[in-house]
Amino acid sequence: MAPLVKELERREEIESKVCVTAQHREMLDQVLEYFSITPDYDLNIMKSKQTLTGITNRVLEGLESVFQEEKPDMILVHGDTTTTFGGALAAFYQQIKVGHVEAGLRTFDKYFPFPEEMNRKLTGSLADLHFAPTKGSKENLLREGVNEGHIYITGNTVIDAMLHTVKEDYVFENDELNKIDFEKKKVIMITAHRRENWGEGIENICESLNRIVEANKDVELVYLVHLNPVVKDVVHEKLGGNDRIHLLPPLDTQETHNLMNKSFMVMTDSGGLQEEAPHLGKPVLVLRDVTERPEAVEYGTVKLVGTDIEKIVEEANLLLNNKLAYEKMSKAVNPYGDGKASERIADAILKYFELSDKEVEEFLR
């Protein structure tokens, strides 16, 4: 949302206010600092061992007072977090219009990913404007009965953000990363933390990574380990102590994007990285059985490998050792954006409120 916040600031017809829930405090603060965003409201709801019910309750209660004070014409929410669904529901209770950024993503399985699939589906039911990143996302919304006139294909704002963050001569703030020889080593960037992978899934992923490193002497891994102890404790137990496996805490936006840019490939169970890595020409192995981003699979930029040990090792070794297989994925077209999503969203908002008669030029690929 950061580039969209900046775009709204530039529009004279729009007065925008930023409210954060701080559902994940550390990750949020990194982004706010990098993009020089000072929230007008900070609910600071994060608690130790927080539950989905607790997050939802605190979001609803906190936003109720913010909305009563500001009386906005519209709120914008992004993606599929519990904050997103809670924000849309809080707005609905006060009959405030809702714009959903990154709308229409679906796996059609309410428990994968959990709770994100239902968060975005329920948000879609509450939204008045739907900013779909791709044609496929729009088609999902149309099948659910959404008015076509309220859907805009914008591309994804995450691509907008990357235009500001990636630099070829980048020097990392994390000195451990500066010591890695990205030119001579094949570096694999990894994130894996989704709820549906807790337990056996994370253990399988770790075993796979050990085998990949053992079989490929020119490979180093950089695993950005989620702060949740359910993930962190397992990963450090299974992968710690190997000098070719770097276990780092989550990095800020710029560090993450530039690590991705310097890496050979990406392995992840995240959603956003499935869009970011292809933009940089990096193949992605998705450590999930389903994805809400089927366009990436269709275009050949990502491959679903799940958490089966043999499958992960096989597909990783193929990319590491088969130049043709690697180039086929790395040179595929990224279907997720051209860096102008924020402009399209701002244009659509002005058109919706009849402050502009400019036609919104949609992103089509």
Largest beta sheet, briefly? 6 strands, parallel
Low-confidence blocks of residues? none
| End-to-end C-alpha gap | 22 Å
Helix percent reads: 40-55%
Please give the order of strands in the largest beta sheet: 9-8-7-10-11-12
Q: What share of the residues does DSSP label as strand, in percent? A: 5-15%
Structural class: alpha/beta
Strand elements, count? 12
* Mean pLDDT across all amino acids: 94
Tally of DSSP helical segments: 16
Molecular shape = globular
Please write the string of helix (H) and strand (E) elements. HEHEHEHEHEHEHHEHEHEHEHEHEHHH
Radius of gyration: 20 Å
GO molecular function: UDP-N-acetylglucosamine 2-epimerase activity
Keywords: Isomerase
Enzyme class: isomerase
Domain UDP-N-acetylglucosamine 2-epimerase: 6-349
Would you mind describing this structure in some detail?
- This protein has 365 residues and is of the alpha/beta class.
- Helix content is 45%, strand content 13%.
- The chain is built from 16 helices and 12 strands.
- The protein has helices at residues 2-10, 25-34, 52-70, 82-93, 116-126, 135-143, 157-165, 175-178, 200-215, 229-239, 253-262, 273-279, 294-299, 309-321, 323-330, 341-352; strands at 19-20, 41-42, 74-78, 97-101, 129-132, 151-153, 186-191, 219-224, 245-248, 265-268, 284-286, 302-304.
- It has a 6-stranded parallel sheet with strand order 9-8-7-10-11-12, sandwiched between helices.
- Helix 14 (309-321) crosses helix 15 (323-330).
- The longest helix is centred in the N-terminal third of the chain and has 19 residues, at 52-70.
- It is globular, with a radius of gyration of 20 Å.
- It starts with a helix and ends in a 13-residue tail after the last helix.
